[in-house]
Each structure stands twice: as C-alpha cells, then as structure tokens.
Amino acid sequence: MITTRSLKFGLLMATLAVAPIATGSAQGGGRPRGGERQGGAGRMDRAQLEQRFRQRLATLLRNQLGLTDEGMRQLSDVNQRFDLQRRELNRREMMARRTVREEVLKGDSADNSRVEQLMKEQFKIEHERIDLTEAEQRELSKFLTPVQRARYLGVQEQVRREMDQIRGRGMQPMGDPPQGGMRGRRPPPA
Which has the higher per-residue pLDDT, 121 or 61? Predict the structure, then answer.
C-alpha cells in the first residue's frame, strides 16, 4: 500500500525527474540551473535528487506491483520506449495551450481561426495520448496482470496529478500554502 509520506516525497521529486521513472541509473549532469539549490554541505544536486526519486519510485512500484528484478527490468524497458513519445505529446500540448492563452488574451484582436486550429490540435493530442496509453498497456500486458496494470496506471495518474498541482503552486512543497496568499488576485468581498 502506498503511504502518504512516501507518495508525497516521490511525487514532489517527480518534478525533477527527467529519466524514465523505473530506471535506477542517473542521467544528465548534476549542474544546477537557475532556481535550483547549489553547493553547500548536505545539499543534493539535481542528479542526486533524480537518482533518489527513481530509487524510491522503483521501490514503490516493486512493492505495489509485486515485481521481481526481471519484472522491473521489463517495466523500465517499456517505460523508456513510451517516455519519449509521452514527452513529445506533453510538449506539443503545452505549446498549444500557451498559444491559445496568448490569443485569447488579445481580446477582440484574437485570431479566431488560429484558436480553432489550436483547439483541434489539443483534441488531436488527447486522442494520441489515449492511443499511446493503449499501446503501452498492450506491451505491459505481456508481463503484468490486469490488476498490476491498473495499479501502475493509478500510480502514473497520481504522479501526474501531483506534478500538476506542484507546478500550479509554483513549486511549493506539498501541504504548504503558496507564500503571499493569492498572488495577483483580489480577496473576495467581505
């Protein structure tokens, strides 16, 4: 069973993960970028955080799905094959959403045909995401039971939801309200 503490830690760390979730090897450099912690005793760089996240998530998945070392290897292989496609879909979706938002904010001068085109692109991406999930499920069905696959989908969805919430809160730690209250918003009338 997923404990709240381990899930929250794993989900917070998911925002830093750039490699497939079930692998145990660190990828990418440990060079800090803007906004990330740098130096100092006891502080971990990005590569170390990613490594810890992957190890914790691998342990969580191993326990939740009851996988052997071979099952974890197979899961990692499938995850790697589908991760690049999933990232590309996410990138396209972000670009489409950003462009729609920019157009809509133009008010009366918004390009309606451009917004229509972008909305169609968003629906197309959703269909592609469903197709990708179905293809991934077919691959997973070769070594996971339906119950294991359902649990895996649940963990994936939970991670995505928490990542969205973290991004929406400006990377505030889970359980902490955004500092400064409701930035840019007027308080409700008294």
Answer: 121
- What are the tokens at 38? 């740098």
Q: Is residue 91 a part of any domain in this protein? A: yes
- What residues make up the domain containing 54? 4-27+44-168
Q: What is the pLDDT of residues 14-40, one digit of tens each?
A: 433 333 444 443 333 343 444 444 444
Distance CA 145, CA 141 (A): 6
User: Which residue blocks in the chain are alpha helix, DSSP H?
Assistant: 4-14, 46-65, 69-104, 112-140, 146-168
Give CA–CA dist 151/40, Å, rounded.
39
| Separation CA 16–CA 46 (nearest Å) | 7
Assigned token pair, 36: 């990330």
150 falls within a domain: yes
Number of domains in the chain: 1
The length of the chain in residues reads 190
Q: Which residue do the tokens 């899961």 mark?
A: 75
Residue 19 placed within a domain: yes
Indicate whether 34 belongs to any domain: no
Which pLDDT band, with edges at 50, 70 and 90, does 64 fall under?
confident
Burial environment of residue 10 by CB neighbours within 10 A (0 to 12, 13 to 18, 19 or more): buried
Above 60 in pLDDT, residue 152? yes
